[in-house]
Amino acid sequence: MEDHKTGSLWEWIVPFSFVVTASWAIWHLPAYILTFAPHSDESKLAQVTAIHNVKDVTPNLPGLFGGVADIIDWIALILLPVLAYIGIRGIKVAQMEFQHWRRIDRFSIFIGRVTMILIISMTLVMLYEVFLRYAIESPTLWANELTLWIGGFVFLLSGLYGMQQRSHIRIFILYDAAPRWLQRVFDTIWTLVFIIFAIGLVFGSYKQVFIVKFYNWEMFGTAFDPPIPATVQPAVLIIICLVALQAFINLINDWNLEPVVHSAADDIDEEELEALKHAVGDDGVGELDVTRGKIQGTQVEEKD
């Protein structure tokens, strides 16, 4: 555990840059498919090529190294692991986050930062659409699908971050009443069950997901026509494996920790509570109170 301040501008720049770079790479995945593993079936090859020609943001740039991916596609592909490494190395854990983290947890924490950027991006897209729709009366054709697309990744990535933070829904009635050795048995059983579920999910659907959806680059079928099936469904299998791995890491990291007794007080953020007390003030009403301030002031004057 490291003790340092969080909230610097650098902590925002790296995840934001990663999201921008990943967005470009994901949008141009057909270029990578056509470059590294082109279809042997002529009809499928023509289908993916046509999709790439329509969706390519930089159609005038030539492909490099005899492939379809242009220089910007290659730069994005190279920058992705570089930005991920910088972000993982520069992780600073806030006080409100889980404090018994290890170096191996840095990846999941960084994914949490990426998820926060995605939430902000999704909110901005929604606000932009609301403004255009109701203020200018000129709605977009892409905002709804883009919000749905980003929201799918937010849901998946937040699951990985939530597992690392131990913030997933848990029922502690039997767990807290059990001795520590039995708690370890419970932890081991549910971790094994989750890993078996992840293996079964991947084994049962990887052909349908990666060969039919991803490799053929299946689109959403709307006016904007984003590749939601081709990207979100593979992400489900990839991230469920990462969540299962994180669950196993949690089992190891928490094995020798002292037992924790859970109560309703666990949901109270001490920093937030202190901020509320400061805002409310000693008399129970803060300076910015517009609902009770005048009434209480009258009551004080009457007492005086």
Keywords summarizing the entry:
single chain; 304 residues; mainly alpha; 66% helix
Q: Number of folding domains?
A: 3
For the record, give the distance between the C-alpha atoms at the N and C termini, rounded to a whole number: 53 Å
List the uncertain runs: 288-304
- Class based on secondary structure composition and strand pairing: mainly alpha
Q: Describe the global form.
A: globular
Mean pLDDT: 87
Portion in helices? 55-70%
Report the β-strand fraction as a percent range. under 5%
Oligomerization state: single chain
Largest sheet: none
C-alpha Rg, in Å? 25 Å
Q: What is the number of strand segments? A: 0
What is the string of SSEs from the N terminus onward?
A: HHHHHHHHHHH
Number of contiguous helices: 11
Structure, briefly:
The chain has helices spanning 10-27, 29-36, 42-55, 71-89, 106-136, 143-164, 173-177, 180-214, 228-253, 270-280, 293-303.
Tell me what the structure shows.
There is one protein chain. This protein has helices spanning about 10-25, 30-35, 40-55, 70-90, 105-135, 145-165, 175, 180-215, 230-255, 270-280, 295-304. The chain is mostly helical and about 300 residues long. The chain has 3 domains: about 1-95, no CATH class; about 130-265, no CATH class; about 280-304, no CATH class. Helix 1 packs antiparallel against helix 4 (about 70-90), helix 5 (about 105-135) packs antiparallel against helix 6 (about 145-165) and helix 8 packs antiparallel against helix 9 (about 230-255). The longest helix is centred in the middle third of the chain and has 35 residues, at about 180-215.
